[in-house]
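Human: If only I could read backbone structure tokens as easily as an amino acid sequence. Underneath my words sits a plain record pairing an amino acid chain with its backbone structure tokens. Take your time, and here it is.
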Amino acid sequence: MAFVVTDACINCKFTDCVEVCPVDCFHEGPNFIIINPDECIDCALCEPECPAQAIVSEDELSNEHKKFKILNKEYAEKWPVINKRKQSTFDTDYWLKQKDKFQYLEDYPKK
């Protein structure tokens, strides 16, 4: 089982989780971070580090968040690895309070 990043991460993009990952399975997009399910070793170190509570075990995903399992895998093939903590967005406090943020997910522009 892998862990999955859900929409609670969108526009917050805390990176506390990436520093504790022993296998560098996180990838960074414009306003979202994902976990590569093929690299995740299910160590659970990242889950408690996420202030947005955006990281969920694959087997505990709600029906509304099951699509994020697919998105995490898809974006792992497109986005670069991130393994160092970065400053979160300037308006994180606002975005932490928002729900159902899927509509705000940004992708890198197609080349």
Residues 3-83 form a domain with the Alpha-Beta Plaits fold (CATH 3.30.70.20).
